[in-house]
Each structure stands twice: as C-alpha cells, then as structure tokens.
Amino acid sequence: MAFMRSYGAGYDGTIPMSNGCPFDIDRVQREYEQGTTTPTKIINFGAELTTDNNIQVTPMEGVIGSDGSNCIELLACSNHFESSVLSIRSQNIHRPGSARASDFWGCIPQNMVVPQLIKKLHEGSLDKVTECTLAFLTTDNTNKPKIVQVTEYTGCFLKFVDPTSYVHLAVFSFAFAKVRIIRHSYGFDEAKGTVNLTKVGTYCYEFDYTQVLGTANAH
Fold it and tell me: How far apart are CA 87 and CA 94, in angstroms?
C-alpha cells in the first residue's frame, strides 16, 4: 500500500531534521514574512476540508477542482518518484523492484484547514488532494494566473502535521495510493518573443500503486 513506501529513507520523519521535512522551512517562513516570493502552486484538500479561501485563477479546461475554490497557497512542496536499477555495468539495466514514490511534503500558511488536517490524521484517509501549478500567462484583461498542471493524489493518508513549530506556517506530509498528472503545454512565438497561448498539447499520466499499473493519457 502507499503508506508503506517510505523504506526508512526519511520521508516519513525517520531522519532527524525538521522531522524529515526535505526543505528549509526557516527560509520559507522568512521569505513569506518579507513578502519576497509569489506562490506558484495552490492546493485543495477536498470538499470535506474547508479553507474558506478562494483564489482567483484561470482554471484548466475540463479538470474538476482546478478553479481555485477552497484552496490555499502551497509555499513549498516536495514529492518524487523513483525505481531501483542494477549497476550500469550490466549489459541490460533491469529493475529489481517496482516503482515507488516519496511521501508528499507541503508547507502552507496557517489557516483554518490546519486543525482539520490533524483531525483527519487521526480519523482516516482523504479521498483526494489536488495540487495545481500556476503560470502567469496573459489570458484576459484581469491578468489572473493560469493553471497549467494539475496533480491529483487519491487515497491519501496523512502522516505528519506540524501546526506549532512556525509562527505563520504549517507543515504536513501524506502518502497516497494513486497519482494523476495532467499537463498543458504551450508554444513560444520566437518572432514576437511571447508565449503562444494556443495549447500545443495536453499530456496525462496516471499510476495506481495498489495495482502497480500506469496509464498514459488517462483522462
């Protein structure tokens, strides 16, 4: 299952350093307090967890939950995917084990959703967590950021929530059973030196760790 994929590598807090958090929270909080960064990601924890916060964005066409409603800024995050391989000196590079993913680590501003995360940590799983990546492309006269990538995590088990170590921020992590990544690509007009807002294409990839099954273009 997803929540058994850490392999003692520290993603679950087994290595002492901010309880296993992979990024520098002190720096994130300092930049947040100084207002020197503009968040490029937002996160939604599903309808059952309320942030009372709606972010004005241009949604990704045809993707539910990418309209910025009930979201909060994601100031920092970490999540990667890997698979073990044999030595490169081998004639053929075989995979001795299945693909696996690290836990998702995130950092958000203190918000009413934080105690709800702690409650969920003791109760059970979250059905879906949606992470959206923003790009500041001019799509209309309001100059709202546009969502260009959506990552949906399904069957999420919260493993860590720190609501008190930092004045303005909260840190959390969760494991998941399935991930789906939807990406819109855009061209670049070399003559004008601007982004071509006509989409070049859409790519989608989904991997289900409960079945060890991946599917491309799985809309």
Answer: 9
